[in-house]
Amino acid sequence: MARDENLRPPPTPGSSTAAVHGGPAPARPWPRGPVTPIFQSSTFELDDAIYEDIARTGGAETWWYTRLGNPTTDAVAAKVAALEGAEEGLAFASGMAAISTAVLSLVAPGGRVVAARELYGETFTLFSGAFGAAGREVAFVGISDLEGWRRELAGADVAYVETLSNPMLRVADLPAIARLAREAGATSIVDNTFASPVNVRPIAHGFDVVLHSATKYLNGHSDLVAGVVVADRERIATVRALAKTLGGCLSPFAAATLDRSLKTLVLRMQRHNDNALAIARWLEGHPEIESVAYPGLDSHPDHDLAARVLDGGGSGIVSLCTRGGDERAAAVMNELRLIAQATSLGGVESLISAPFNTSHRQLDAEQLSALGILPGTLRLSVGIEDVGDLIADLDGALARTAGVAGRLSGGSRPRGVAGAAQRG
Description:
- By secondary structure, this protein is of the alpha/beta class.
- It folds into two domains: about 5-260, Aspartate Aminotransferase, domain 2; about 265-410, Aspartate Aminotransferase, domain 1.
- The protein is built from 15 helices and twelve strands.
- It has helices at about 15-20, 50-55, 70-85, 95-105, 120-135, 145-150, 175-185, 195-200, 235-245, 250-260, 265-285, 305-310, 325-335, 365-370, 385-400, and strands spanning about 90, 110-115, 135-140, 160, 185-190, 210-215, 225-230, 290-295, 315-320, 340, 350-355, 375-380.
- A seven-stranded mixed sheet has the order 1-7-6-5-4-2-3, sandwiched between helices. A five-stranded mixed sheet has the order 8-9-12-11-10.
- Helix 5 links the parallel strand 2 (about 110-115) and strand 3 (about 135-140).
């Protein structure tokens, strides 16, 4: 029996509705229920319609081999596109697969990328190394240097930035950068992982392409690795053409897990936002903390910009700098009882790490300092636990490490966990 068209979600649903019900009905519908089915098959039976589509489009509009497209992975990509206000989406096996495929597909050999200097460490390595080897020129500018963006974008193919920089949470002026890219004829790409579409929809600010490491907030349960790219249909077709060759497809089972997690995204992000702001305010008043970076604080250099761009909240990451440098920071992590040491973020549980030997381990001391990652810096991913319990855990760890020595001699930084005895 045909599905009643009146029962479909509205054409432009709110975030919570989109997170539960997803995007448009699939082009080749299956029997629908409240849960997206898992099409675990690696291949599908061929028929005349599929052969015709292969001949006409290369198989872009049907499912016949999962590396090229799968109903489950397509459904979750469409849901993220709906959340971001984009026309289409494409799911990947990781956030890095999404970034590399999107940029390589949209910048031909000999082309030029202008990127913010303040990037996730692995992304910086990709841009500064592998892209050059692949024949793409990359220029870096400060995230807030709008004149630098204007100057460097002349003749460029792509402008690339993170909504909130990792880990110091500088806020990108999305409307201004999108405008400068458009004036230069460049495609604007933003990694919206840290903010999530609950806190900002970059497409509404003029961006062309939005990326996510769906491992983080979109999934929110630390049990899969995934990436998503969303954009208009024409650009997604371009990205998909290269994705088929590079092969970084998301598995159907992981896609179904992500689809389930997205249903609670809005509720989770509201709690992440509230908890992180409360902890940032508490840390800012603590005598053992040198500085706190969180866009919801008046002291943040981009606080006013954040108020204009982040209409949903400041998200769940707080970066802090302890007194006593890296040795003290390591000791604090070792003394935590509730908050676990781990390098990821965006899960319902709170995690903490030192960027210099995890997310930004590829950078030397000078590069770290230029990004504001000073000795003693910790990145705290605030979960959805009771905020009083998280504050008590941090307070206890800071109190128990008050006597730890300061910065290591010679300006060196430990490459592993330093200091106090490991937690049992």
